[in-house]
């Protein structure tokens, strides 16, 4: 039977503090979040969803403007447009 106290080479006593440290930013009172449907919704997820919508709109615009036959690597282009849109929204709302 496999040793349960080890997780991918890390001792069991080291995994718990690492997981706690990685999740500690989520519980910070100043972390940006929205109240949607009675729960706290992380702001980065809202920006990611908006970025996905921007990428879909960019794809539809490329098809409508017949750029889909000219531009290579359309998945990367639309993903980059969505990422840029999401980051611009993040900087606009939560930038310092």
Automatic annotation (TrEMBL):
GO terms for CC?
membrane
* Topology of this chain in the membrane: Multi-pass membrane protein
Superkingdom per UniProt? Bacteria
UniProt KW Hydrolase keyword: no
Per UniProt, subcellular location reads as: Membrane
Is this entry keyworded Phosphoprotein?
A: no
**TM spans (from-to):** 37-58, 70-93
Q: Note one Pfam family from the annotation.
A: Ytca
Q: What residue range is the signal peptide?
A: 1-27
Q: Which UniProt keywords apply?
A: Cell membrane, Lipoprotein, Membrane, Palmitate, Signal, Transmembrane, Transmembrane helix
Indicate the family of this protein. Answer: Belongs to the YtcA family.
Q: What is this protein called?
A: Uncharacterized protein YtcA
Native organism: Undibacterium jejuense
